[in-house]
Amino acid sequence: MNTLRKFMAPLIAIALFLAGWEWLVWANGWPTYKMAAPSDLWPAFWKFRGLFLEYGWQTLWRTVAGLALAIVFGVGVGMVMGFSRTVRDGIYPLLVGFNAVPKATVVPILALMFVGQHDMNTILVAFMISFFPIAVSVSIGLSTLEPEYRDILRSLGASQLTVFWKIALPKTLPEFFGALKVSVTLAFIGTNLMEIISPHGRGLGALFDSGKISSDYPLMFAVLIALALLGIVLYYIVVALEKTFAGWAERAPT
Amino acid sequence: MTPETPAPTPATAPAHIELREITHAYKTDAGPLPVLDNLNVKMAMGSFTAVVGPSGCGKSTLTRLIAGLMRPDEGQVWLGGRMVTSPRPTVGMAFQNPVLLEWRNILRNVMLPLEIVGQRMSKADRESRARELLALVGLEGFEDKRPSELSGGMRQRASLCRALAHRPEVLILDEPFGALDAFTREDLWQTMARLRREENFTAVLITHDLRESVFLADNIVVLSGRPATSQYVLANRLPRDRTLEDMYGPIATDMLATLRHQIQVAQGRAPATAAKAAE
Q1: Of A155, A166, A171, which is closest to B69 when you measure between CB atoms?
Q2: Are A157 and B101 an interchain contact pair (Cβ–Cβ within 8 Å)?
Q3: What pTM does this model have?
């Protein structure tokens, strides 16, 4: 009963959303160039099914690669900031400034810097847009570790590294996964930004762009739906990982 | 390593822990903040010493000094005939916050110190040691529970087990019962007394609770206000195997009155020469 509800509730919500959307378009008599209805999307999906699979895969792997880079870099920076107050105070403004720069402005710069390296550029944008939450959450997780946690191992003569592996790292995992849920969506946005803006791109973003150029409005909406689906899949992969590695942080419902 | 000898009577025994002329100040933005001033304390092998004093008088600093987590500005800490310059694995600590690791079950929490200092022990030995301690404090059957599934008192029992898992020579207790309700606290006192009968250690207890100090300790050191020095030492006159009933007898009442008076002196609320408070 409980599992049924868990699966049915979101499915019903999605069905209601699609029905509402369909009704809105139908009631207003909108043509597809104003807004395509869900029923217009199936033909578009079917017509370009090969491209959807190929480009969907490209978008997916670049996002994951960018996110992986963001995790490695973000955790590294977060660790250094978490352990050293001086470093944290020193590089925080830099990080905030870097994060505040709209990534759309970075896209042409990267495209000029690494001409033709479309995969790498896309991964770089995905990485740049998504590492910040990870770095901040890891640094906060480490710097707010109660001193007693450190003391129980330090008083036995354990090294800083042991304290990190046995206590600081696992204790920071819930914060890390919270940030990862934000970052996974951001990385996705970064990938598509590059794919849409840069000429001769590939991936779902490029498919969206070609839909725009050829005035195929149902295709544009179909890409949006495909992106939403991919986003949901990635997000729930992170949720599954969180359940596995930081499931202890979730209290049993009372 | 100190040889395993039966605990001698505290009065004549050589000091196991000795604080010699300890002076310490914290560096703050507003300048140095002196917390300890020429503090001298001796604790015999196997003894139980309680340290009481006004809030913020440097009691917790004392625990970090004995554990070797900090070095004093001046003076020395001696432990088993050797000067303490760094942390050593013969020490176990428990705090007011039980700081159990939420991602481990109770058994694996208690086994934690053995992963650092018990590398020569087999996994089975570590586990049986942890189970033995948990049984001693009445947590049999809770080995597989997560800390969040336990009450505050049970968590503190598990924390005591963890502090003792590696058979430390010195047990440092920094207000371990401070956050518990009065009934649970008395339960834990008895648990602590049982642990003392079964295990060999020299204990230092930091506490705000004078009754707790009288129930558990052999000697009670009253610290003065900040910067703290040892203002008064009271030897416990209760029988060693004491019960909660003893706490309402005339000896305990008299000791409590003395301690309370000394705390008031430490706080500057009563002159040192005045007779004990209205008796």
Answers
A1: A155
A2: no
A3: 0.78
